[in-house]
Amino acid sequence: MSCADRRAFTLLEALIAVGLSSAIVLAASMALRVAAQSTALARRLSDENALIRAGMGRAHAELDFWSMLDDPDAPTAQPLRAVTAGQGLAFTPLAAVAPPRAPPVPGPEDERGWDPTDPWAMHDPRGWYYGNPAEQDISDVRYGRYGAFANAEPAPVLAPLDFGAGANGYATPAVRHGWLFNQMRTLLDALGYYGYCEYMPANSLYVYYTSHNPSPDWQSGGTALGGLPLELVKPGIGKFASNDGHSGYPRGLYLLTFLASFAAPNADIAAARMQGVSRSYYVTGYGLTWDPNGVEYQRLIRDTETRRPLLPLAPRHWPRIDVSIQRFVRFARFTQIARVRWTSPLTGVAAELNFTGFSTTLRGARQQRRPTSGWARWDNDGTANDATLDTH
Amino acid sequence: MRILHTDITRQGSTLFEVAISLAMLAFCVTGVLLAFPAGVQAQQAARFRLLAAAKAEEMVDAFNTIHNHNTVIDAEAPQPWETTAGRRAMAHDLETRLANPQTGLMPLPEAIARRLDSDAGEIARLLDDGGQIYYPQPMATTGVLEIGLGDVVANETQRLIVGVIGHAQSNAMHIFPWKAWPYYVPWPSPPLHGEHHHDGTIPATTQTYVFGRHGICWESTNDEDMEPVFDGVADDGEACGFKPYAYDAPPAQASLLRYVATTLWYCRAKGLPPAFWSPGSTAAPLDDLSTYPVAAHDQVNAMRFLAHAALCMTALWDSSQLTGAGVVVPSLTIGGTPSPPMTITHDLIGWYHDSSLALGMRFAAARPYDWGAPRPLQRAQQMDFPLLEYDLFPDAARPLLSGVIGDTGVSARQWRAIAAQPVRNLGRSFSFPVAPIPSQTPGDPDYAADADSIWGDSANFTLAKPFAPAERCRQLVFWAVDWQAYEDFELVPSGAIDAGRYNLFAPKPGAPFAWRMEGLAWWDFGLHTYRNPEKNLTFVRDVGGYATGASVADDLIKNAIIAPPDRGPTLDARRIFLGRHGADRNFNKRLDRGPVPASARMRARLIARFNIYDPRAPNVLR
Fold first, then answer.
1. What letter does residue B168 receive in the DSSP assignment?
2. B149 pLDDT tier (thresholds 50, 70, 90)
3. Are B209 and B215 in contact (CB under 8 A)?
4. Chain A residues in contact with B561 (beta carbon < 8 A)
5. Predicted-assembly ipTM surpassing the 0.95 threshold
6. Position with higher pLDDT, A82 vs A383
7. B263-273 average pLDDT score
8. pTM for this prediction
9. Interface residue of A142, A181, A198, A362 to substitute, partner B, most B CBs within 10 Å
10. B391-415 burial code (b ≥16 CB/10 A, e <16)
C-alpha cells in the first residue's frame, strides 16, 4: 500500500504535466517573441523619431542660417560668393560687385553704391518708380521718353523716334532720377534674380531704364525702344519675364511668379552653372500642363534643392536621414520647403516629412556673415558690429 | 494510514492549484504583452506630434505669406449677393484661405468625419457648430502646379486630421463688393478707360467705344469734365483729348498739342490757378494738396493728366526744341472755356512728372477714404486699403439689405457696410457704372438716406478698437486616425462646399443664371480660394464600379483649364463641382478601398494643440 502510494506520476498525470509545461513554454516563447518584436519596433520608432526630430532641428537651423548654401566657417563651402564677369551670386559681398559708393551729392538722387542702413521709406521720392508702367518691350514709345527723366545712366543714349514726320533725337541734359534704377541694376548684377526680388520692396516694378541698345539680343544688352532691358522685360526668353501671353511691360512680383519661379541655386551644382540657375526662371505654373512627365519640375528640384545627410557617419542599422532645403518664389510668396527624408535600412522604403517654414530672409542671412569668413557679431548699440556681406 | 495519507497530500500541488497558478501566470504575461504595444503606440504618438508640429508651422506660414491671387473673379456687382467677392470665399480665415489644392488642406468628407469619436466629443461638436475637419493632401505644399509633380512620396501625414477650434471673427472686408477699391493705374496716365462685357452695364448717355468690346472712359462717369480729356470735340469742331492722339491715328504733333491743351483746359475747369501748371521754379515738385483751395482729388487727377500728355511730347519733338525755347501749346476752347496757352519745356515736363507722383502718393497715403482719384500702380501696398467691415447689428432704421439673386427668384440678404470714416467721392464702379452706389455724403449725386443706403451704423465699427489677446486666438487641434482604412474613403462625396466658392459671373442684363454659371474662365493660377478644395483629386465620373486598385488617372479633374468639367449648370458639372463621385484622396491615381466597413466607428487620438493668432484684416508677410 505504502509502495503504491509512493509510485511515480501516472501516465495521465505525466501527460497533463507535459501539456501544461508545453503551454507554459509556448506562452513564454510567444511572449518573448512579441516582447522582442515590440521592443525592436518601439526602439526603431524611437530611433527614427529621434533622427526625424534631429532632422527637423537641422532643417530649422538651415531655415535660420542658410548654411548649406554658404557656410561662413568653411571657405570651401561658399559656392555662392563667386563673381563672373561682374555678376555676383546670392552670397557675393556687395563690395565685390556694386559700383563704388558715392555720397548723395549734389542731391539724394546722386547717391550710388549700396547703403545697408537705408530703409527705402515709402515717402522718399527717390524710391518712386518714374518709368512708364504701361510701356512694353514692343512699344513705339508714343507716350514719351520716360528714360529721359529716370535712368540708370546719368546721360543715357535715347533712341531716335519716327512717327512719320522724320526721326527726332533726344539728348537729355541730365536725368532727374537715377538712384532707384541704379539700385535695381546693382542688386540684379550682384545677387541674381532671387536676391533681386527679395531685396526690392514689396510693391516694386522690376524693370529699370538704361541707354537704348538696338540689338534684338538680350545677351548683347539689347533694349526695347524706350530703354527697357530685354533681359527683364521681353517675355518667354527663359530669363526674367515668363511667357504669359506677351505682357511685356514692367511687372510686379505676382505677375513675374504666377507662372514661373525664381530660386536660390542648389549649392552642389557645377560652378559653371551657378550664374545660369541664378538668372533664369523655372516654369511652375500652367506651363507644366504641357509637361506631364514633370521634366521641368525635376529641373527645378535638381537645380535648386540642396540636400545633406543628417549623419554622414552612422551605424548601418540606423535609418538614413537626409535634410534638404529649397527656396523659390511662387505667386509672390517666398517659399522655403524643408524636407526630411528617411530610408529604412531593412526595406529601403523612403518616407518624407515636408513642410514650408518661416525663414530668415536672404538679406538677413547675408547680414549674419562677414565679407570674408565667419559669423558677423551684432549688437543693437552698433559700436562693435562686424562688417557683413552687405557692407559697402 | 492517516500519516501516509498526510504524506501523499504534501507531495505536490493539486491540479486545481496548478490551474490557478497558470491563470495567474497567463494574466501576468498578458499584462506584460499589453505593455509592449503601449510603448509602440507612445512612439507612434511621438511621430504624429512631429508631423503635426511641421504641419502647423506650414499652415501658419502659408496663411501669413500667401497673397490673394483670385484674379479671374468678378469682384463687383450692384448687389453684394451677386458677386462672390463679399462672401466666405474671400474671408481672411485660416481654414478658408488654406482649404484649396495650392495650400493642401482638404475638408474630410462629412460621412467619414461623423464616424470619428474623440475625447469629449470635440470632433462632433466642431461639426455640429458648422465647422469642418481637414486632412492634408499627400504632396508638399509648394504651390507648384500639381500636374508637374512627380510621384508622391509616401508619408504618414495624411493620417493626421485637423480642426480649427474657436469661431472665426468678423473680418475686415477683403473686397468691397459694390466697388473693388482701390483702383490702380499707371502714373501718370489719361482718364481710366477699358472694356465692358455688356452695354447694359453702361449708362445710356455714356459714349461707348470699340476697344475690343464695349469700351467706355470709366472715370468720366464720375466726372464729366474728363470726357474731353479722353475724347472730346473742341468748339472749333475738331477732335481733342487722349484718344484722338493715341488711338485714332498715327501719333502726330497736331493731335498731341490738342491733347496737352485739353489737359490744361481740365486744370482750368477745376478752378486751378495758373501757378498750378506754370510754376515759378521747376526745382521742387508740387507735393502739398493744401496749396490751392481746390478739391484734393481734382488736383491729383489734373496733374496726372497734364504730366501724361506733356510726357508724350518727348516722343514727337527733338530735345533741342524742348530744352530750348520750348514748344508752344495753343489755346483750345471747349464748352466756351479756353485752355490757357502754354509753352512746354523739358524741365517743365519733368516737373509735371514729379509733381504728379508727389501729389498722387500723398493723396493715396493720407486719404484712404477719398475715392476721387485712383492710386498709382507704382505704390500698391497694404495701407491703401480702407478699413471696411459688415455691420452685424442691423436695426429698424438700417435693416439687412435684401433682394433676389439674378433671375432665380431666390431671396438673398446681406449685412450693411461700415467704414472707419465716411467714404468721400465714392463714385460708381468700373464694372457697373450704370448702377449708383449710395453715397454717405449729403449733396453727392448718389446720396441716399439710411433706409435706402447700403451703409450701417458707424457706431458698430470695431476694426480699430482695442482688443484682448484671447479675442484673436483660435486653436489648431490635431488628431491621428487611420481614416483611409475605410472601405469607402475614396468614394464618399466631398465635404460641404460654401456656395461662395463657385466662381460666378456678375449679373448682366438679360443673362440667365445658368449662363452666369459658366461665364468666367476658371484658371487655377487665378482661383485660389474657389472651387472644391479637393478639386484636383475629385473624380469626374462614378468610379464605384471600378475594381480596387484600378487606375483612376484619367478620371481626375487635375488642372483642366479648357472647359473644366466642374463648371456649368448641367447636373454632371454640378455633381463634379460638389465632389459627389468621391476623390483620389491619397493621390496615388488608383482607386483604393480599405478593410474597415463604413458601419464601424474609429477613435481619433488627440495629438497636439497649437494656439494661433487670428487677424481681422487681410495681410501678407514677406
1. P
2. low
3. yes
4. 286, 289
5. no
6. A82
7. 98
8. 0.91
9. A142
10. beebeeebeebeeebbeeeeebebb
